[in-house]
Fold these 3 entries.
Entry 1:
Amino acid sequence: MGGVMLRFGLLGPLVVHDGTALRPVTGLKVRVLLAALLLQPNRVVSKDSLKEAMWGDELPSSVEASFANHATRLRRLLAATGDERLLTVAPGYQLLVAEGDLDIEVFEARVRAAGLAHQAGDWEKVLGESRAALALWRGAPLADLTPYRDQRGPTLRIHRLGQLRLQAREWAFDAELRLGNHREILTDLAVLAAENPLREELHRQLMLALHRTGRQAEAFEVFHTLRRSLVDELGTEPGPAVRASYQELLDGEQPPAPPVLAPAPRPPYQIPSSVPEFTGREREAAAVAALLRDAAASRRPVVISGMGGVGKTALAVHVARLVQDEFPDGTLYADLRGFSGGGPRSAHDLLARFLADLGARPAALPDDTDDRAALFRSAIAGRRVLLVLDNARDAAQVTPLLPPQGPGAVLITSRQLLVELPGVEMMPLRPLGAEEQLALLSRLCGADRIAHEPAALADILAACGGLPLALRIVGGRLSSRPSWPLALLAERLAPDRGRLQALSMGAVAVRHTFDMSYRAIRDSGNAPEREAARAFRLLGLWKPHVFTTRSAAALLGASEYDASAVLELLVDANLVHGPGPGRYALHDLLGEYAAQCAAEEEPAGEREAATVRMLVWYARAVGAACAVASHETQSPPPLDEPAGFALPEFAEDADAIEWTKRELPAIREALTRAGEAGRSDIAWRLAAGLFGYATTHWWTGEWDACLRQAMDIAVAHGDTLGQAWLHRRTAVAHGMAYRNEQCLEHLGRALEFFTAAGDLLAQASILGNMSSLHSQTGDARQGLVLAERSHELYRRTRSPRSEALALSRIADAQNLLGEYTLAVLTYEKVIAALREQRHGVFLATSLTHLGDVRRHLGDREAALEAQSEALAIRRRMDDPGGTADCLAYMARTHQHFEEWEAARSCWEQCLELGLHHGMAQHIEASRAGLAGLPALPAPSPPKEVTVSPVPPSQRVAASPVPPPSGAATASSVPPSPSPHPGPGGPSRTCVS
């Protein structure tokens, strides 16, 4: 962050400091909003959570407007520093906080450092870090934000902070006792012990301080008072540590010195044999090795995490061998069996083994695990030993095995992220890339073997999904069966042939590896983990597309909050990965495994209900995106099912189009599944709802395929409403691609359906589209008649939002009839309305047409100004077809005014777009336009067209959007002066 530095304080009343002075944060609601965001710094906090923080359960009727107002005030306060700190990220907000800028985070980091120093016995550092942490407290956290601080979330966080503060004070007292400062801490220790009558450690420390200052009687009284309190309140006796200190009082002696540990006769070296075919992972191996070698960073533990079969152990063993010379005191290795059929190994037993491996010979091995851990830390302290803990189940299994800070290092592998471990370096492991997969398979079965069947090889690599385990199984099968062609194995690994069963060899199987991860949470005693296992099964019902918390909530039949919780738990378990913020996906093989688990364990009724919830959600989400992207005044009637689950939110048309583009594979999957389930009502709504997306991606052919598929489903089920809307939308697709006869045919069929139904608004839209079609084919008179009939029907239906649409068609016809002055006046009315509606696609179209009319009138500057603004809009919304149209129009304008070089540049850019995206008509039009230019001595290379500056008051914030009611015109430019269909005709018909 490059602006003014802001520091935030929550350990007391809320404060914001800019480095020189406090910045006032006025208004209780704004302060609560800021505090709620600061309690989850750099994380997305949903609007619903923030509203609950600000108003509790009693939301006012004007909550949306009020919330937006408070958020704007906070954004203004934070933006005054010069940085954009408060980001709008669906489904809420994210507050960016740099390291060291929030007192809670600094406090927790200091406490962690004090704890590590306490483990290592570095008492000076314990004292320094503890004092630095405690100095950050200015009073009770969030002291000025009642009743917010009394809500459950803040209360839990405040309680945890209080416990950490108490722990820091205990560690500080421990350090003082170790450093001989018994007398100096007596007063503070006595007060704190009185405030916490059941806190055994404080009373133990107070006993020792009194005893070591000669006040034995008071020390005994402290013990007996504590014992009475524990027995009366909890029915329990003091713990071992207090009893040991009490015995010290009885003996009148100082604490015994730590046991003497005999040095090991020779350094242990326990790393298993490395995988001989270890291939790839150069970047990850180098990064892990650098972390283990970095003595300056105190060699923090390194955790390699990833899904089962991704190669964590192989990488850990490989790296351990790379760095073995850095650790002359030995390498300890243990398979913790966190994910295995026999259950995880206990830290208690492993500590006994490690102590023996290090040559420790205590008189008696302690029975208590914590005591063994302390002995292990003493034995390994100061030694340059590498400890490799493989296949850890969770942080609790690992924590007792961690050595103190020092010259040694720790390398851990786990299918869990182990984020609870303090101060670790994370190395998440992903599946192998394409080149690494090919290299590994070549090493396993020979490069010559796989070189002759490239198609089968591609299928095999796709089936393995980049998992080294799967590739090793495939390589082993091929090397042991030299007569097998690759095509035979590729066929057996096809997804519909049960590839998980095929990916096994002897005792090694991909499914078995997945079983260990899944069963660990399915059979857990922890209820949230069992719920995550159910979620994992249901996620398998949907092909491995990306989920959001909202789509997952629909599939799971859960709240968005609960869906987010189980998804994050699955991410931590490496059963789900996150390709982006708030987005989740299953690895292809894990998706197939999850589907098998669902088939085996979920009742058929639940599987069907979950699938229908997902289909309904996608149908509603696509409809919502279309409504924003198209600004249409008439949408298909809603489904009968209640809404139920939150849909994606779109700030503007560009967001809606981008969402649809990103979700298109899942939408096509939903369309197919809806047909299989006999849900024609869902299928046709999905296809019809792609209209908004198609206004900028009509040229890809995706929409045509979806419309044909949905029409087959609607006809098969006798769904007349679906057929009406699909004919209407199919006419859109044909009109956009200049398939004029087919467009007119589907418009006629749609008009028959909607006339029979008495739907005047639909009739108005279809007549308007017929007008556009006739104008596109050069019949301007008929186009004008139909546009006026459409305009009249829109008036009768009282649809003012469609007036701009109807007027634009009238203007198109006037343009074709040569009534340029009238056309200019009409287009200007349309453009004024569209600026107010913030309708990007339709505005770009109208500006393009206005520029063409201005060209006819000889007004060069006005023509290029309008067309340049249209081009800027098209480029901003990443619309290749619309951009090519604008460039063709601008080429004709430059050509009209004999600006040959500028015309050539426009045609060449149009041609480049046509070639890149396979738009045949633009290729043809561009080549014809270039051929019609006079020869130049030295043609310049293509360059960007200079966009004329547009006054701020006329700029459009929106990105691509089609016209209202799904009936818009996208601009085109003729390759010759006379208008005709194709790139360059007066308008591309875009119908609803």
Entry 2:
Amino acid sequence: MTKRIIAVHVSALALAWAGASHAQTTTSPAPAPSETPPATDATPPAIAPEKAQEIIVTGSRVITNGNNSPTPVTVVSTQQALAVQPGTLADALNTMPVFSGSRGSGSNASSTGSVGAGNGAANQLNLRNLGSQETLVLMDGKRVPPTLISGIVDVDSIPQMMVSRVDVVTGGASAVYGSDAVAGVVNYVLDKNLQGLKVQAEGGISQKGDAGHYQAGLAWGTDLFGGRGHFEASYQYLKQNGITRRTDRSWLDQAGVTGAGTTGNPYVNQTGLRLSKITSGGYISSGPLAGQTFNADGSLRPYQAGTATGTSALEVGGDGAYYDASLIAPLEFNQFFGRFDYDLTDDIHFYAQAGGNFKSNQSYADNVLLQNATISASNPFLSDAIRSQLAGQSTFKLSELMTAGPRLGVDAKTTQINLAAGLNGKLGKFDWNVDYIHGSSVLKTTSTNNLNYQHLYAALDAVEDGNGNIVCASAAQNPDCVPLDVFGAGNASQAALDYIQQDTHYRAATVLDDVTAAISGSPFDTWAGPVNVAISGEWRRLAFHSSSDATPSDYADCTGIRYNCTQGSTLLWQNTFAPTDTISNTVWEGAVEANVPLVNDLPFIKSFALSGAARYTSYQTSGQYWTWKLGIDWHITDTLRVRGTRSRDIRAPTLNDLFAPTYISIVRPTDTLTGTSPTVPAYNLSNPNLKAEIGNTFTIGAVWKPSPVFDIAVDYYHIKVTNAITQLQGQTTQIQQLCYASGGTSPYCALQVRPGGFDPNNPDDTNPANQVTAWISQSINLSSIETMGVDVEANLHTSLFGRRLGVRFLGAYQPHIYYRQPGVPTIDQAGAAFGQLGAAAAPTVRLTGLVHYEPSDQLSVDLMERWRNPMKLSGVPGEVWENNHLDSFATTNVTLTFKPTGVPTGEFYVNVQNLFNAIPPTGGYTGNGTRAGYRDGYAIGDDVIGRQFTAGFRMKF
């Protein structure tokens, strides 16, 4: 995308984001590219002198200077962001307060991977906590192909070694860039003029000896053909070991929420939770031995109950078992990138580039669960003494969480290839460009140790053959069956575990082809200056298909299996993905944008300009839409300016929203009508009738720069999304209660399946025999979302004791995020730590402070402090809590950077994250069911690793 550009020096400030890090700051004329900018007290401190770099203003095709942009744009220096917050670039970006609710490797993802549509640990940026699908991700101003079937971009796919900076546009930009830019835009800007070789490496570990991470990378660039051409390439490897068991952090202590949220049974945030009457060795729930549990040697002892809670399926303490799922998902990637540029003529430039990312995430969750499974009283794995005590009955019921066996896991491997080529140049006084992008993303999700219910129920029914061998009763129909000993933790043979748990596979492929063209320039001048105009067009096609060897339509063959298995209704697999035939969506777009200066050099009006953009978009699947944007830029004086925007934006439904086949997951939430917690299927349905969401955004702000060393910007925003796509989940407590309050007449009652009715006043309906047998989820255009807030950014560059000092402050105040839905009380998610449909923590106040000081020429010190305010555990109205509160949380990072004498282009650094080893407060979500230790325990965004140490070096040749 060609735009007019302005050359602005970008200092490598050893703050995380500095120098030209926010486009609202007045910038002095830049030196020529061959010059080295002078160092003065008024300029940000630099690690090493750098050449001037061109900044293309993100968020507009006609604004030629970030100082004149009506939309706030914050620019993040990649190198320094990673220096203060090592790891992935996504980790560093998420220290900015404008990001809230971003998901990643530590986001309590479910074992099914559904939170990431096959990869629940993918790094997904989220502006304003409106959802990752409302944030548009670009690379050099061009759309990045989606990584996941949900249409979301895993930003780890972008080549970190080549990213010079990241521009964050905090305002609607659909009229400029198209669909999805409702909350804003994140634009990764590549260094396209790299000269020489740069290398970097680092390694780190937590103070507990886990969560290690290692990365190394190199990048090289050189001019060719006498300077008419340029080639550059990079490679980076990163590995994060993660934390694969939640018990590795004792403070989590199986935290969760119990109760029903009523006056008589309020919600309570508790720790030490255990599954009631479900043990690791097996709990007998029927017959003469009811109330006893198996020891490791197969003998019995009385079950020791824990302290009862408001949820019958959960206790505090006692013999009950608990899950031990992943806390931080391991991550590993290899990234490759190459780019070639060539000036075909003095006015025509050609480029071609290719990038590849090969990434894997692993997560672990469910153990095998037996819930009142029917067991033969003559099972030969039982001791003779126990069988004699069971004489006279044929079966008994057993509940067990097989914690000694392997956990269901997800191994998600992504192969993403992005190709791009284009021409740009000048035609008279106009700039033009034509670009083509081809992106291919293949996600291979292996469900490791996936439970095969047919094999499980066959293996549970063990008998003795005539030769004294223990075999499966249904061996004739299941000849490979290996009998399973479930009487005592750890007694199951490896062969039996391998028989009941197998790896299954899901493969999803997404392909994007995108052609864009634009022309921009100044056709004429007004009395106040040149009028800049841009006309652009785009065609793109997104296609998707998938295959699976464990589908929701696979049912167990129960022939010969005497217990637990029901022909035609027992699913074959615990974790399933539905295959999808090729589905696609073609989009045509046309847009026009203009910036018109209206007034110059009048009292109180140093300059005043009006900008506007309009775009027409035609979706093959979802209809036609107009989006538009108006903006003002008013320089009152040389030191004070006011900016504002008003826009209409869209977010179109994804192919997955529209056409995904029915997906079934196994869940265990509380059925509040009967008070039971059955393990039942949840059917997730797509909706081909969905239309685009409509966003309406208003921003107004002021930038004050009273001196060359200090500036401050304050911006207010208000965003309302109507026709919002929301997923109605029958199992959520609120949806259940709305059904029951109607006596069964509410349409929400269609989201649950049970044998009888829905009347809470009818004893037949509240009887456990009427417990739910399935839940239904489906997305519809039903709700609206509204949020507002204020962003603040201040910068000071001065000296202390004659040495350079830089201070930066960023703050976000977001007092409300309203979710409105007909017939449902309005939810204000702002200030809530947990929410429905995977809503992440939304602190109303998020602050980040950075200090950089250079006590000597060889040493610099960086400090970063992050703080969020206290939150409610839930923002759902009408809920009754014992204490609906989660404490505030803060962390401190410190980095020491050393520049050895005689090595002007090299530096070594040591970093400590969470310097004071702050422990986050524990909490949970009311709708996450009764699987103690499975997820929750902390608010997304809080640091769960603890104190971490990192050391590394960077060098350029």
Entry 3:
Amino acid sequence: MQFLWGVRCLLAVLLLGTGQSEAVCGYESCPDTKANMINVHLVPHSHDDVGWLKTVDQYYYGAKNNIQHAGVQYILDSVVAELLKDSKRRFIQVETAFFFKWYQEQTEQVQRLVKKLVNEGRLEFTGGAWSMNDEAAVHYQSVIDQFSLGLKVLNDTFGACARPRIGWQIDPFGHSREMASIFAQMGYNGEFFARMDHVEKKQRLNDVAMEMIWQSSESLKDSDIFTGLLYRHYSAPPGFCFDILCSDEPIIDSKSYDNNVKSRVDDFINYVKTLSKSYRATHVMVPMGDDFQYEDAEINFKNMDKLIKYVNERQVEGSKVNVFYSTPSCYLYELHQMMQTWPNKTQDFFPYSSDSHSYWTGYFTSRPTQKRFERDGNHLLQTVKQLSAFAHLTNEKQTEDLDALRQVMGIMQHHDAITGTEKQAVARDYDRLLTDAIVDSQDNARDALRVLTNLTTGEFDSCLELNISVCAFTRDSANNVVVTLFNPLAHPSSQYVRVPVKKDNYLVTDEKGHEVPSEVVPVPWQVLAIQYRSNNTQHELVFKASVDKIANFYIRVMPAPKDAEMPTLTRFERLHSIKQKLSRARPDDRADADADEFVVQNSLVKLVFLSKTGRLKTVEMNGVSENIEQTFAIYKGARGDNGASERRSSGAYIFRPDGDVNILADKVDYTVYEGDQVKEVHQHFNQWISQVVRIYEGISRVEFEWLIGPIPIDDDTGREIVTRFKSDLSSNGVFYTDSNGREMIKRERNKREYFEPDMSESVSGNYYPVTARIALQDEQRRIALLNDRAQGGSSLEDGQLELMLHRRLLNDDAFGVGEALNEQQFGTGLIARGKVYLILNSVADKSTSVERLAQQEIHLPFWKFFSGSNTASAVKPQRIPDFSDFPQSVNLLTLEPYSSNELLMRVENFMDETEGHIVSFNIRHIFDTLGGKEIRETTLDGNMPLSDMKRFKFHHDGSMPKALEYFTSPFDPLHSYAWDDSSRFSVTLNPMQIRTFIIKWQ
């Protein structure tokens, strides 16, 4: 209490003497440097996880310090007080989620002082997103959203002086090329991080290649961005942690008997000399901080003040070390001024390995249900944002509810949230936060739909348990139910809709009263058997819907025809053995029931199964036939005492299998259901693994809906479950994975771009993050797998693709979380359900474009809203723009309220340079329909005019730089008004290009 009282007094006194400051932010506020010296940029910082061992609020308020001592509010209190004492001091703040929560709680006096610090460049925002996001399991849409959110809060609060210039991704467990591309598109000058494969880091240290130019996109030409690896993680040098969480010696000066100035200065200068040998410039950056440090910042700054003073005093004795407070942006500014050349980087930094037996590839899959829940949150967020924009929802509650979902989704991108590397109690809190935000934001959707349709009293309920075929709205009856479908994509789409229903005869009609073909299929008995699942609905009504943006479909129960007899599995039957259950299934209408094979096909896809084993044998689609065997396999998780890396356990972070994989090769019990629109093979592999193989009429892909769990642990062994697709393709060790849902990256088994990896763990060392797609091909054929959430995947043998679906482990991997990844629900192991999609095609020009189109629909399918009504008629309002004339490769990435009278719109060309081409189109009609008065173009995040973007351009090795160069917009940014000619609203997009606009509508 005395400390806090002292802070308040100090702030009050300082405020009284605070007048107009002549200092400025930006590079003009950077410290002076000295020529012919090693200039050491000391960067005070605190890395504050938005949840990990404690919840977000526990970290902020300093609760549960028995788990981890951390209190972010006190860090910010203390740092601000110390910055005000000396204008030379600096500090960087990264996570906007924590900062904004703290700032809102401050008095007006404190807020004015904070603005003074920001305006003078003494408190600098680095990174600036809502959280420091992961880079493996995140989707680019969600990353852009959470940066847009964080940067807008900073801009609205402080103006241009708060604009971050540097990406500060110091803690994520590997780094993606797409993340670097996003930084470049937002106008950042560079990025820094702290984790890299231990073999690569050692080589880069020896090669003086710790800093490089990252070519972050094969399609975007101005995507180069400076990238640097910190020398020693993100911690202070050994022996120089002055924080209360550390036990290093303080600097003792004056005439004390314990005076240690000489030894302390000697040690620091020696450290700097050693560090500088691994960097090319005469400037080096030394971070001074670590996790949740600076809670008593006076101790930190007082000792750093002494360090700076006494190190610099050595210069009169000939020392060439010059040290001062600085920031990453000031450090990079000096590097840019030097006009040096730098090595090139083209791929990414996955997978990350911290030692010979620790590939951090398990977190690509950890907590699979949470990874899916995050995707559901994004799905609803895009839906609600668009609906809010169309209906111009601007009242206070609507804004608060939308912001709440934005903020929680920002938290979910954190590198200990979407990764699944948090404690179980924290995972539950993330689920709670997201659930509450989803429920509240549905009020916005309801408000909008009551304006945008004629169902002015419609309930517009969302069903959040459709993944287990449960919907409260149709639990008792689906009679007189209207399903309102919202299409978040730009183009009209035709997709199959599944509604949980009772076994009845249904008629589905569209808004014009025309009948829509439909059929009823049974829910797999394994789903019905899930503990605590409501079994009122044991079937699903399936129909194909075509939707531009919003469409209503009306469901009625009709008298059943006499010959209607659908196969079903009752609750009573679930209590019998598997064979008894399956014997109830309808016999297949084949000429030879004893044939070795059976075929399931529609007009586009043909699947051949082996009758005796029930397994897939052959897939034929897109004019290509290929032998494809799909199965499940089990890795046993290594378990050790964690006393040394060679005995490390498989855990939340790392994937370390124990022995060879166990392929489930036994006979599969199966049931076939064949309708006109959907055909399904229900497969039962064992008591806790089953799936449905499904094809839809008119859809050229195969759907595999898997159900796994509870994973057994009776033998005290953890297990990691994968699905494998084996073909005859000659892939020669090459496969491809996506980078955060955008561009594909070529992978070569057992190889890396820059170095020879340590493949002591050859399975996990070949795993890569698969956010949306993994593929392989030979000269003629190509197989791609698309997934519904982030997972780890690989091609461990030629012609084979593998995705990890679920994992349950009994030992901690000793990287800090302190718990085994042993998820449970209802007192038993967690059950997970999800989908993998297979596309087989020829290798032809632009053939992968079909994968891109499928990827769009899988990521953002129709969102379903349910209402009770006796009619399905709807009015399409004039305020919903028609996006259908966009070129096929152009998507509406974002449309959302930006302020009380502005909208933000992003459009993207989602094809890469091998699949697509430059496209042009006009957005005048969209602008007019949205009520636009003015439109201006910004950087990707939406918070800086594109015309103001001027980011550092660095030179590659082999070039001869003669002058400072910058990246600016390669075209004239769009800026037009309602009275301008339509030609002023033309938009051109190169492959993979995203353009962002702010539309003022009143």
